[in-house]
Specification:
Bound molecules: adenosine-5'-triphosphate, magnesium ion
Number of strands: 16
Structural class: alpha+beta
Number of helices: 15
Length: 425
């Protein structure tokens, strides 16, 4: 036998047994986003490498170590997108969607990062991203958080997620803080791990993010970012908290939440869980008021977030209340050659009259018992049986596969009435 070619490490197939859950999650999200007036934008998966370098930042994990970058045939440096915000801003600028107006947009699709694959962390993964442009106040920050909170409720996940908030304040306030933090960290340089020593020059705020227990005590005593907040940022943060309080949304102010991308300012937030091991962040975002201008557009305030679909799916697998629709409602068995054409016609007729139902027609013939076994395996609620007797009498035998209910023999009109009850469920 020829050697099989395997998928690339960290890039997963999502199998038919799993796609029902994905589709249901995607349906819920689409409806939720529409309910808040957000419209979908679809961007390419490949962009010029410079787009990500200029937006995410040269000294970030993503740009330094995680990007899939390659030379196009004509020598241009291209990159598989590691996230969606940069592309969304690029598209918004390119098509004049952002200037002098407000825009609420979302997108869904694969992202690529060369990380060490583990549970909840892959090299191709999927995000739903949501971005709002042209709005500077804390009201829109609150709206985005309210929207995610509603989603958790709809998915039955609200008990397992905690909201963490922080403000990265203005660029100048953050620069002052950076100086103070760097000075403090230098005093404790002996305690810093290798990664942190490297970041001391390039991106010291990221050291606060470290999960290294040996540094925990030292970091807990570090100067606090909130001590350096400028007045507007302080007010903005208070405005956001007031709105969350009014909506009854609980949060924790995490002074050490800094996020891994350079473009953030003011509000940053994460929804975290302890049910996924180390990969605890399910949804993360914040304000990026400078990015549109940085990428060549007119200065435009902006805020957004992204959710990791794989992590949500992993959580949903643990939640019983998340119902996934059946793949098949009705399995139609055709027993004997004489039933085959009428069965196909019957399946089409049911699809005409009850398009909401999922009808699977048995193909390939075979004995009644084998067909019934297939019907059961399909997950269908009802098996319809058409044999020579049924064809002659113009009736259909109905077998309830999941209920303790007697088999019945029905005319087509009666059958439709029975099948309708499956739709209402
Ligand atoms: P982490 O701290 O887990 O590396 P991040 O800060 O790099 O996350 P973002 O860039 O903010 O993540 O992406 C938003 C969300 O996308 C994350 O909260 C997570 O749910 C998901 N995500 C990010 N990287 C991966 C990955 N490699 N595999 C699966 N999901 C991911
Ligand atoms: Mg990461």
């Amino acid at each position: 036998m020829a050697k099989q070619i395997q998928a690339i490490r960290g890039m997963n197939d999502i199998l038919p047994e799993q796609t029902g859950r994905w589709q249901q999650l995607e349906r819920v999200m689409r409806e939720l986003l529409a309910g808040y007036g957000y419209s979908e934008i679809r961007m390419p998966i490949v962009e010029q490498t410079d787009l990500f370098k200029r937006s995410i930042g040269e000294v970030t994990d993503i740009v330094e170590k995680e990007m899939y970058t390659f030379a196009d045939r004509n020598g241009d440096s291209l990159t598989l997108r590691p996230e969606g915000t940069a592309s969304c801003v690029r598209a918004g600028n390119e098509h004049g969607l952002l200037y002098n107006q407000t825009r609420r947009m979302w997108y869904m699709g694969p992202m690529f990062r060369h990380e060490r694959p583990q549970k909840g962390r892959y090299r191709q993964f999927h995000q739903v991203g949501v971005e709002a442009f042209g709005l500077a106040g804390p009201d829109i920050d609150a709206e985005l958080i309210l929207m995610t909170a509603r989603l958790w409720k709809q998915l039955g996940l609200n008990d397992y997620l905690t909201l963490e908030l922080n403000s990265l304040a203005s660029n100048s306030a953050r620069a002052d803080y950076r100086e103070a933090l760097t000075a403090y960290l230098r005093e404790h340089e002996a305690l810093l791990d290798e990664d942190s020593v490297r970041r001391l020059e390039s991106n010291p705020l990221r050291i606060l993010d470290s999960k290294n227990p040996a540094m925990a005590e030292m970091l807990a005593a570090a100067p606090k970012l909130s001590e350096y907040w400028d007045d507007e940022s302080r007010e903005h943060f208070a405005g956001l908290c007031a709105r969350l309080d009014a909506a009854g949304i609980e949060y924790v102010h995490n002074e050490r939440l800094v996020r891994g991308l350079d473009y953030y300012n003011r509000t940053v937030f994460e929804w975290v869980t302890d049910s996924l091991g180390a990969q605890g962040t399910v949804c993360a975002g914040g304000r990026y008021d400078g990015l549109v201008e940085q990428l060549g557009g007119k200065a435009t305030p902006a805020v957004g977030f992204a959710m990791g679909i794989e992590r949500l799916v992993l959580m949903l697998e643990q939640v019983e209340s998340f119902k996934v629709p059946r793949d098949v409602d009705i399995y139609l068995a055709a027993v004997g050659e004489v039933a085959e054409l009428p069965a196909m016609a019957l399946a089409e007729r049911i699809r005409d009259d009850l398009p909401e139902l999922r009808v699977m027609l048995h193909c390939g013939g075979g004995k009644f018992a084998k067909q019934l076994k297939k019907a059961d395996q399909s997950g269908a609620e009802i098996a319809l049986i058409l044999g020579a007797d049924e064809v002659a009498a113009e009736r259909i035998t109905v077998k309830h596969l999941r209920l303790d209910k007697a088999q019945e023999s029905l005319a087509y009109a009666e059958l439709v009435a029975v099948l309708r009850t499956l739709i209402a469920e």
